[in-house]
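pasting for the record
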Amino acid sequence: MKQCLSAKITTLLRRAPIARNLARQNIVAQLIITLLKSRNIQFGEVAQHLNDAVKMASNQTRIQNFFREDELDYFVLAQLLLSLLTRQGKLRLCLDRTEWDFGRCQVNSLLVMVGQGAFHIPLYWELLDNRSGNSSAADRIALLRVCLRLLGRQRIGLVVGDREFVGHTWLKWLKDNGLNFVMRLPRHHLLTHPDG
C-alpha cells in the first residue's frame, strides 16, 4: 500500500510541482506518507518513519536540510489542495490568526481555510511581521487577494472571521468586492441600523 500511495502522491506532485526538481518532489511525497504514518509533525517523530534502512539521525538531518534549503511554492500548493475539493458549489473561506511559540521565537500567522460542507482544508497563510497581536486590514486584504486569484470571485460563497477581523477599511473592501461575509463582533461594539 505504501508503494501505491507513494506513486499516487508523486504523480500528483509532478502535476503541481511545489518543489523545484524531481528528487525534491520525491522527498515531499515521502514526507507526506511519513506524516500520515507518524501522525506527528515533530522532526524527531517523523524521522522514525522516514527510511528504516538508515539511522534515525540521518533521517532527521535529511528532513532539516530539506526545510532549510528548499522553498516550496505555496501558491501551487494551494492549487493542489483545492484539487481535493469538488469543482461545483460555493466555498466558505474561514480566516484565523494563530500564534505559536517556537523556542524564543514567536510565530504569528494569518491563515485562510477553505471549506465545503463539513470539510475544511488550510488553503493559504502569511506570516505577520508583528510578534503578536491582531492582523491589519492590509494583511487580511492581501491574503484574500491571493484567494481571489486562486478561486475567482464567483466561487467564494462566504467569508467568515472572528472578533478581531473587524474595521471599516476591511469590511468596506469585502463589500466593494462583492464578497458575502459573517464576522463576529466584540460585545462592546454598537451597531446603528441604516434607519437610525
